[in-house]
Design a protein that fits this description.
The chain is 41% helix and 16% strand. With 161 residues, it is an alpha/beta fold.
């Protein structure tokens, strides 16, 4: 855990992000890309946690946020997703940011920022940042971060792609 002070975020934010980071560790252990995501209701209740499943599900769209949005819609329904917050261990890509918008997510908090993920992981990258994808969206989506960047990055650094 980082000794770096967390500013601008609540204890609830930190706890939800730690769940996402824990999920990223589990994804890494099972052979997937090391990313996790937590869905939290507008009232602050943790609704579910998911992880990347690109390799284990043989699905190139199996990013943690996509897996989370798909499961949440099936199990909770779109109405329950309205106004939620997603905590993502890594800054969501354009595909994930769009899916969260269409799912009704109001706030996204990320751990590792896109440029740093690109440096660590290499490979294909989309240059559009999450905030840029949802800029001007109606209804609006807040994108905040990084939160617990050092902890999120530490998991990414263990990935041997």
């Amino acid at each position: 855990m980082s000794n770096k002070p967390v500013t601008g975020f609540t204890e609830q934010d930190v706890a939800a992000m730690r769940l996402a980071i824990d999920a990223s560790k589990e994804a890494l252990k099972r052979g997937d890309m090391p990313f996790g995501a937590t869905l939290v209701s507008p009232a602050g209740q943790v609704l579910m946690v998911e992880m990347n499943n690109q390799n284990t599900a043989a699905d190139c769209t199996g990013h943690a946020e996509i897996v989370l949005v798909r499961r949440a819609q099936k199990e909770l329904g779109l109405e329950a997703m309205r106004g939620t917050t997603v905590y993502a261990s890594g800054e969501p890509c354009a595909m994930c940011a769009g899916a969260m918008f269409w799912g009704g997510v109001k706030r996204v908090v990320f751990g590792a920022p896109t440029p740093l993920m690109g440096e660590i992981l290499g490979g294909a990258t989309l240059p559009l940042r999450a905030a840029g994808v949802v800029a001007g969206a109606v209804p609006g989506v807040s994108v905040e971060g990084p939160l617990l960047e050092e902890e999120a990055v530490a998991v990414l650094q263990k990935f041997e792609g």
